[in-house]
Design a protein that fits this description.
Order of helices and strands of chain A: HEEEEEEEEEE
CATH architecture of chain A: Beta Barrel
Radius of gyration of chain B: 25 Å
CATH topology of chain A: Porin
Strand order of the largest sheet of chain A: 2-3-4-5-6-8-9-10
Strand order of the largest sheet of chain B: 8-11-7-13-14-15-16
CATH architecture of the largest domain in chain B: 3-Layer(aba) Sandwich
Number of helices of chain B: 13
Structural class of chain B: alpha/beta
Largest interface: A-B, 40 and 54 residues
Shape of chain B: globular
Number of domains of chain A: 1
Strand content of chain B: 25-35%
Largest sheet of chain A: 8 strands, antiparallel, barrel
CATH class of chain A: Mainly Beta
Number of domains of chain B: 3
Oligomer: heterodimer
Structural class of chain A: mainly beta
Distance between the termini of chain A: 46 Å
CATH topology of the largest domain in chain B: Rossmann fold
C-alpha cells in the first residue's frame, strides 16, 4: 500500500512537468582528458575471426578441411605512439574434417560418410603491438606478435553414416557424437602474428602443442598447426 | 588463396603503413626574400586589405627563402607544396633524408603527415523534384529569411568567394549554376592535388556546395550569393581523409587571399583519424591556424562544423571549425528545426563555444541532377551566401565585425548552446535594427530548494509544436556549459532544477543540482532570461 502511494506521488510529481525532451547533452565529461580510446592509454574491443588451418607438414594431413572461429576481447595498453602491450581473451572453436582413406587411424580406422573432430577452448594471449605511424585517436596500422595459452575444455568426435536400409523404421543417416573424448590434450599453446588496420586484420598463428595425448593406444598423427584467418573488430 | 591474401594485405595497409612519408618542414626565417604586394596580389585583395587597415607588407606574405627551398629540395625526394603564411614546405622523404633535413641550421621544426582511408560521408538520395523537394528548397532560404536579401536585390554582387572542396564535376553543366557561367562569374579554378586548372572532375560535392551558395533553380534560389564572383579550388580528396587535404587547404587559403576573395567557404573537417579531442583547441592543427591567419588577412572563413555528431566518443567540434576566427556552421533538421543528429557538437577542447551559428543540414542541391543531400557541408555555404549578402549591404564591415553581426542576427541570440551556437542567422536583423523587446513568455519560480521554469499560459500552443520549443542551458561558475536541453513545451511547468546550496535540501537522483554561481539560461519564443544561483 505504502509503495502504491509512493508511486502515485512520484507519478504526479513527474507528470506535472510537461515537456518532451528533444535534445539533451551533458558537457561535463568533456572537460576531463580521457584515458580511454583506440590510441589512448587503455582501450578494449571485441573481435571475431574466422579462418582455416593449413598443413605445413610434408606428410599428408589426416584432415581434409578445417575451420577455425574465434570470438574475444582485446585489452590494449599504450606505452608510446609506436608500441603497446595487450591481453587477448578469446573463445576458440576449431573443427577438422577427417580424411577417409585406407591410411586413416584417427581416431580409428573405421571409414564414415562424414567424420570430424572439433575442439573448443578458452585462450589467453599476451601480445606486443607495433604501430607504424603517428595517428589520431584510432588503432592505425599495426603488427602484433604474441603467444597464447589455452584451456581446451572440450574435444568432440562426430561421425555420420548413410544407412543401408531405407525402409520405415530406419533413418537415412546415423549420427554419432562422442563428447569430451579422452585422447585430446587439455591445454594448448602457440605463437601468433597479426597485421591489422582499423577494422580488419590478417591473423597467422602456429600451435606448438600437440592436440592428442601421446601413446594413447596409438600415436595419433597431428592435425594442421598453422592457422590463417581474417579478424574483424566488432565494437568500440 | 594467395590472391585473396594479397588483396586483404592491400586493404589492410591502405592507410599506407609502408608508403613514402610526407612532412611539413617549418623554416626559421625568410632571409633575403623580397616582396611586392602590387605584383603578387589581385587588386581586390589589395582593396580588401586597405579597407580593413591591414598592412600590405606583412612578413607572412613574403615568399620563402629561395636558397632554403633549393637546399631542402635537393635533400628530399620531392617537394609537394609550400606556405608563405607559415614559412614551411611540404616534402616527401624517407626517415634518413628527413633526419638530414632536420639538421639544417635554418629548419625550425618537422611535422609528419598521415593518410587515412575513409569512405566519404556524403549521403545522396536521388529524387525527383516533388512538392516536398520544392518546399525544402524554399525552406533552406526561408529559414535564413533570405527573402529580405532577394526582395531588396542583394545577391552578393562584387563579393569574391572562394570555395575549397573535393571537386566540382558538372558545375559547368549544371542548370542551377548556368547564370554564373553565362556571366563568367567563375574567375579562376585550381586543382591543388593535380596542380592543374581543371576542377570539373573527381567529385560532385563541390558542385552541390556551390549550388547551396549561389544556385538558382527554376527561378528559386538554392543559395543567396547568386551575383558573387567565385574561385573554385579542389583541395580535398573525397574518398580519403588525407593530411595532404590540410596542406592543400592551406595553399587554397593563400591562393584565395592572393586572388582577392573576401569569403572562403569550406567543408573540410578532420577529427579522430588524425587528432585527439584535446587537439581541437584552435591552435594545434595547421588548418585551424591557417583559418585564423586568413581572418588576420581580412577574409571571413566559413567552415562546416563536421558530421561526427553521432559519434559518442567525439563530442567536440572538428578542425578547422575549432579556430576562433572561423565562422563554424552546425546543421539543423528541416523538419524539426533543431539540431540534426550527425552535426558535430561543440565546444572546442579549450571550452569555447562552437558552432557559431547553424543552418539546414539537409538540403536540396544539384549537380547533373537534383539531389537531397545531408551534411554540415551544405549548411556552411548557405551561411556563406548569407554573409556575402550582408557584406554587400554593409561594405564597411571588417571581416570580424561581419562575423559578430551574423552571430547577433541569429535566431536564439543571446542564448547559445553547443549544438546550435546562436541559432540560424536572420536577414531581418540587417534591415531593421530597432530592437523590439520580446514579450516575457516564461518565468523562473523560486521554491524551497528548487527553481522551476513556468511558461505563461498564453504562450502554450499545442497546435503549433514547432514554435513551442524551449532551449535551456546550465552554465557553471567558470562560464562553461555543463548541460543543455531542447524541449517541446506542452504544459505550463517545464522543468525543475534542484539547488545544491548549503541551506537547501538536495535530491541528487532527480535532476542536475545547481551550485552557487551556476546560471540557467532559457530561450522560449524570442524571450531569453537567465537565473543565477546566489
Amino acid at each position: 500500500m505504502k509503495k502504491n502511494i509512493l508511486f502515485l506521488l512520484i507519478f504526479f510529481t513527474v507528470a506535472s512537468f510537461g515537456q518532451r525532451t528533444l535534445l539533451t547533452q551533458n558537457v561535463d565529461s568533456n572537460y576531463s582528458k580521457s584515458k580511454y580510446g583506440p590510441n589512448r592509454f587503455f582501450y578494449s574491443y571485441q573481435y571475431m575471426a574466422i579462418g582455416q588451418y593449413v598443413n605445413t607438414d610434408t606428410v599428408k594431413a589426416p584432415s581434409k578441411q578445417s575451420i577455425g572461429f574465434k570470438y574475444g576481447t582485446k585489452f590494449k595498453f599504450k606505452i608510446c605512439n609506436y608500441y603497446a602491450i595487450g591481453l587477448d581473451i578469446n573463445y576458440d572453436y576449431t573443427s577438422y574434417r577427417i580424411r577417409q582413406d585406407s591410411t586413416k587411424i584417427l581416431p580409428d580406422s573405421n571409414l564414415h560418410f562424414r567424420e570430424r573432430i572439433s575442439f573448443q577452448s578458452i585462450n589467453a594471449a599476451l601480445f606486443n603491438r607495433f604501430n607504424f605511424k603517428k595517428r589520431g585517436d584510432r588503432l592505425g596500422t599495426y603488427l602484433d606478435l604474441g603467444a597464447y595459452y589455452g584451456w581446451l575444455y572440450r574435444g568432440n568426435h562426430f561421425t555420420k553414416d548413410k544407412n543401408q536400409y531405407n525402409s520405415p523404421g530406419y533413418s537415412k543417416y546415423t549420427i554419432v557424437r562422442n563428447k569430451k573424448v579422452s585422447y585430446v590434450n587439455n591445454y594448448n599453446y602457440g605463437f601468433f602474428a597479426r597485421l591489422g588496420g582499423e577494422y580488419l586484420s590478417l591473423n597467422v598463428s602456429y600451435r606448438f602443442s600437440d592436440l592428442f595425448v601421446k601413446n594413447y593406444i596409438v600415436n595419433y598423427p597431428e592435425l594442421p598447426r598453422l592457422f590463417f584467418g581474417l579478424e574483424i573488430r566488432l565494437a568500440q | 588463396m594467395c590472391r585473396i591474401i594479397l588483396l586483404l594485405c592491400a586493404l589492410l595497409l591502405s592507410d599506407g603503413a609502408f608508403s613514402q612519408n610526407k612532412y611539413w618542414v617549418f623554416l626559421k626565417d625568410k632571409k633575403g626574400s623580397t616582396f611586392n604586394p602590387y605584383e603578387y596580389f589581385d587588386k581586390l585583395a589589395i582593396k580588401r586589405r586597405l579597407k580593413q587597415g591591414i598592412n600590405l607588407f606583412d612578413s607572412t606574405d613574403f615568399p620563402l627563402c629561395d636558397d632554403y627551398v633549393k637546399k631542402i629540395a635537393a635533400l628530399a625526394d620531392s617537394v609537394s607544396w609550400s606556405t608563405r603564411w607559415f614559412n614551411a614546405i611540404a616534402v616527401y622523404a624517407d626517415e634518413e633524408k628527413i633526419n638530414t633535413i632536420s639538421q639544417l641550421p635554418f629548419v625550425k621544426q618537422i611535422k609528419p603527415m598521415d593518410n587515412y582511408f575513409k569512405t566519404a560521408s556524403l549521403k545522396n538520395i536521388n529524387t525527383e523534384l516533388s512538392d516536398t523537394d520544392k518546399d525544402l528548397l524554399k525552406g533552406q532560404i526561408k529559414s535564413l529569411q533570405g527573402d529580405f536579401f532577394i526582395n531588396n536585390k542583394y545577391d552578393a554582387k562584387g563579393i569574391r568567394i572562394a570555395i575549397l572542396d573535393a571537386g566540382f564535376s558538372y558545375s559547368d553543366n549544371c542548370d542551377a549554376l548556368d547564370h554564373i557561367y553565362l556571366r563568367k562569374g567563375v574567375i579562376e579554378t585550381y586543382d591543388f592535388y593535380k596542380k592543374s586548372s581543371n576542377v570539373y572532375k573527381h567529385d560532385t560535392h563541390g558542385t552541390q556546395v556551390f549550388c547551396c551558395l549561389a544556385g538558382i533553380f527554376d527561378s528559386v534560389n538554392v543559395g543567396l550569393a547568386a551575383g558573387a564572383e567565385f574561385l573554385l579550388g579542389r583541395t580535398e580528396d573525397a574518398m580519403n581523409e588525407r593530411m595532404a587535404d590540410e596542406e592543400y587547404w592551406l595553399a587554397g587559403l593563400e591562393w584565395a587571399d592572393k586572388m582577392g576573395a573576401k569569403i572562403v567557404s569550406s567543408s573540410l573537417g578532420h577529427a579522430w583519424w588524425f587528432y585527439f579531442t584535446e587537439n581541437m583547441d584552435g591552435k594545434t592543427s595547421i588548418v585551424s591556424r591557417a583559418a585564423n591567419m586568413a581572418a588576420r588577412k581580412g577574409m571571413l572563413v566559413v567552415t562546416a562544423a563536421g558530421n561526427e555528431g553521432n559519434n559518442p566518443n567525439w563530442k567536440y567540434i572538428l578542425t578547422p571549425a575549432d579556430a576562433d576566427s572561423a565562422l563554424s556552421i552546425g546543421g539543423i533538421s528541416h523538419s524539426t528545426g533543431i539540431h540534426i543528429g550527425f552535426s558535430s557538437y561543440g565546444p572546442t577542447a579549450d571550452g569555447r563555444m562552437k558552432p557559431n551559428v547553424c543552418a539546414y543540414g539537409e538540403v536540396l542541391s544539384f549537380d547533373d541532377e537534383d539531389e537531397f543531400v545531408e551534411g554540415t557541408s551544405f549548411a556552411c555555404p548557405l551561411v556563406a551566401g548569407f554573409a556575402a549578402c550582408v557584406w554587400q549591404k554593409f561594405p564597411d564591415y571588417t571581416n570580424m565585425q561581419l562575423f559578430h553581426e551574423i552571430e547577433k542576427s541569429a535566431s536564439l541570440y543571446p542564448y547559445y548552446d553547443y549544438a546550435h551556437g546562436f541559432g540560424v542567422p536572420q536577414a531581418s536583423y540587417f534591415f531593421d535594427k530597432t530592437m523590439q523587446m520580446p514579450d516575457t513568455t516564461f518565468d523562473f519560480e523560486f521554491k524551497t530548494g528548487c527553481v522551476e521554469i513556468i511558461v505563461r499560459e498564453k504562450y502554450i500552443n499545442d497546435k503549433c509544436a514547432k514554435a513551442d520549443i524551449m532551449y535551456a542551458h546550465v552554465e557553471n561558475e567558470k562560464g562553461k556549459l555543463v548541460e543543455y536541453f531542447v524541449w517541446e513545451v506542452t504544459e505550463k511547468k517545464v522543468k525543475r532544477f534542484y539547488l545544491n546550496i548549503s541551506n537547501f535540501f538536495v535530491d541528487t537522483d532527480k535532476d542536475r543540482d545547481l551550485k552557487e554561481g551556476y546560471k540557467v539560461m532559457v530561450y522560449y519564443k524570442g524571450f531569453v532570461n537567465t537565473y543565477i544561483v546566489k
